[in-house]
Amino acid sequence: xxxxxxxxxxxxxxxxxxxxxxxxxxxxxxxxxxxxxxxxxxxxxxxxxxxxxxxxxxxxxxxxxxxxxxxxxxxxxxxxxxxxxxxxxxxxxxxxxxxxxxxxxxxxxxxxxxxxxxxxxxxxxxxxxxxxxxxxxxxxxxxxxxxxxxxxxxxxxxxxxxxxxxxxxxxxxxxxxxxxxxxxxxxxxxxxxxxxxxxxxxxxxxxxxxxxxxxxxxxxxxxxxxxxxxxxxxxxxxxxxxxxxxxxxxxxxxxxxxxxxxxxxxxxxxxxxxxxxxxxxxxxxxxxxxxxxxxxxxxxxxxxxxxxxxx
Length: 311
What we know:
- This protein has helices at residues 10-21, 47-54, 68-77, 93-96, 119-125, 161-185, 217-226, 295-300, and strands at residues 2-7, 25-30, 35-37, 42-44, 59-60, 81-85, 103-107, 115-116, 130-137, 147-154, 200-201, 233-236, 242-252, 263-265, 271-274, 279-287, 293-294.
- The protein has 311 residues and is of the alpha/beta class.
- The chain has 2 domains: 2-201, Rossmann fold (3-Layer(aba) Sandwich), CATH 3.40.50; 206-300, Methionyl-tRNA Fmet Formyltransferase, Chain A, domain 2, CATH 3.10.25.10.
- The strands form 4 sheets. Strands 5-2-1-6-7-9-10 form a 7-stranded mixed β-sheet. Strands 12, 13, 14, 15, 16 and 17 form a 6-stranded antiparallel β-sheet that branches. Strands 3-4 form a two-stranded antiparallel ribbon.
- It is elongated, with a radius of gyration of 22 Å.
- It starts with a strand and ends in an 11-residue tail after the last helix.
- The relative contact order is 0.11.
């Protein structure tokens, strides 16, 4: 089967590697254009492009999929299946309809829950204990297509976005290979989604990252780990300086009867902060204008004191 792979970030790289390492016939890779990154705005290729070129796979980086030029390219490549993993653009109807075996997407949730841009982060932020991967046929709606295969993944109390991203990346790669095999063998029966059960996630914005210590300790901890290591949740010290929080743990789930956001203790290199119910320990921080550091180092730098209010 001739497979055209469409993907861009590290999450997509798991699936592309699995296809290549397991001998699937990847005839081309479509990825986003190189983008400037870092302080020097150095033009940087997507991870998928770097790997594809190392494997000798042709790479295409169109600015749009809706041009005659891309339609001609598609006919030239003539894929039998298009595998899409975190590509970053909506596929037009002529692309969706082209391959014999369809366009298959690897989505980081158990659909129809968490359609959209941030399914992995949302599962953690909402305190879910289980998430997973769904492979599906792509349709014109956002993550609305018929489901093919599913696999579950547990979320432990202290798993963060990076942990789940990598775990689901590997799981998605495995499931994509099984899906390709099943489609070729004719052994998979597509299952329509129950749209009445659908929930949606959006791109994470800055205002979504602010910690609200007037919530319970579980909610605060889930936000911190769901946004770590990127983009990171944040609060402010009493002097108004931004303080991003990299890592936390739940300290106490019973009510503290203290002002929300109050620093209760600085014992054992942990910043213990009161929530509406219970408290969290802040373990790693990114202070304004500084690099990441342990809470112990932040405490030693005398940047925080017992009784301070974080808000």
